[in-house]
């Protein structure tokens, strides 16, 4: 875990950059494996990338990134269904 020692202290710029890099690696892995929703990935697909994201990001951020990805993809699917 790469969180600041004092939970009220925000992550530094370099910590945020590393966090976002690992987030992008995780979501790129899902994309390469043709997985739309992180919840569909299972325990083994992209597990190293997911662990990297959780290691480099505050856990609340990593959880938020996954929730946001889920909501975004579900919204896209719903819009496509309505447009048909």
Automatic annotation (TrEMBL):
<comment type="similarity">
    <text>Belongs to the cytochrome c oxidase subunit 6B family.</text>
</comment>
<dbReference type="InterPro" id="IPR048280">
    <property type="entry name" value="COX6B-like"/>
</dbReference>
<dbReference type="InterPro" id="IPR048281">
    <property type="entry name" value="COA6_fun"/>
</dbReference>
<keyword id="KW-1015">Disulfide bond</keyword>
<dbReference type="GO" id="GO:0005739">
    <property type="term" value="C:mitochondrion"/>
</dbReference>
<keyword id="KW-0496">Mitochondrion</keyword>
<dbReference type="InterPro" id="IPR036549">
    <property type="entry name" value="CX6/COA6-like_sf"/>
</dbReference>
<dbReference type="Pfam" id="PF02297">
    <property type="entry name" value="COX6B"/>
</dbReference>
<protein>
    <recommendedName>
        <fullName>Cytochrome c oxidase assembly factor 6</fullName>
    </recommendedName>
</protein>
